[in-house]
Write a structure and sequence with these properties.
With 124 residues, this protein is α/β, with parallel strands linked by helices. The chain is built from two helices and seven strands, in the order ββββαββαβ. The mean pLDDT is 85.
Length: 124
């Protein structure tokens, strides 16, 4: 396993928008990854109008799953990670938990792929 050590904030934005016939999906999450003391912690900084509270756990689940077994970043263990949910949007009819779970996982991918990752070090 490799350990991620964050020195400066990383920003990620994920959108999941799909339209299949009568079924529509919409979720949009903007987050900042910052150093923390230990483990993964969250800060919910969006209004009910941006992302309704009912999708909060789905957003958190998408982040946690990004580091879980079989996930893109499963070989990395964050050594103290604060995930600040700072922006996002929802649609009254088309938003659901799955859309927000995917959007938050995409936001993590974007943050960790951003190549100003001189702010991130990897130790074995």
């Amino acid at each position: 396993m490799k350990k991620l050590i964050f020195q400066t904030p990383l920003r990620g934005e994920g959108s999941y928008v799909r339209q299949n016939g009568g079924l529509h999906r919409y979720g949009h999450v903007v987050l900042l990854l910052e150093p923390a003391l230990t483990g993964i912690s969250f800060s919910w900084e969006v209004s009910e109008k941006q992302i309704p509270e009912i999708f909060k756990e789905a957003v958190y689940r998408g982040v946690r799953c990004s580091f879980g077994p079989g996930a893109k970043f499963n070989n990395y263990i964050p050594d103290g990670l604060l995930v600040r949910i700072v922006d996002g949007s929802s649609h009254e009819n088309d938003s659901n938990e799955g859309s927000f779970e995917i959007a938050s996982a995409l936001a993590i991918s974007m943050a960790l792929a951003s190549e100003d990752v001189g702010s991130m070090t990897v130790a074995s």
